[in-house]
Structures are given as C-alpha cells and as structure tokens.
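Now for one specimen:
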Amino acid sequence: MPDNFNKLTNKRIVDHIQYRNTVIVGEVTAAHINRTYDVKLSGESNAYVTIPTIFTNPDFEVGESVGVQFGYGDRGDPIIIGRDRRKIQTPKSITYNYV
C-alpha cells in the first residue's frame, strides 16, 4: 500500500512541476459580470470557465488572446496574467499525392 501511495504522490508532484511558471496562450470566449472570463487554451478542446485575472479593472474582449498561468503548477487553478500577442494556432490537415 505505501508503494502505491508513493507512486501516485510522485506522479502528482511531477505533473504540477510541469506546468509551474508556464504561460499558455488562450482566447477569451466569454466575459462575465464578476470580472472573470471563459478562456479556450491552445491544445485544449474545452474552455476553462470563470478564470480570474490579476487586474482590478480588466477589459479583455471576446476573441482576444491572453496569457494564462497556473497557480503553483496546478491545472485546476488558472489565472489570466495579461494580453498576449501570440495567437492560438490550429493545425491544418495536409494531403500528399504519392504517385
């Protein structure tokens, strides 16, 4: 039992460290009255809902690119840290004709 617990604990720690101090590009999909936003992150299929921001008077618009960082590397604790000039890139399918 302790070996299984140690393996699970170590996996969680490594997963958290992976996202620590990483800024991910996202696109605002909805703005709420309580100064939170729904943001679709690059590489994610669903949007994170009600993400707070570090600003006291945020003015992000729907469709705007923002930088999102995870508190303590926890994917369940995202926060918007500002605007981002980068755009979310969508992969394009390429077909080859080998003749």
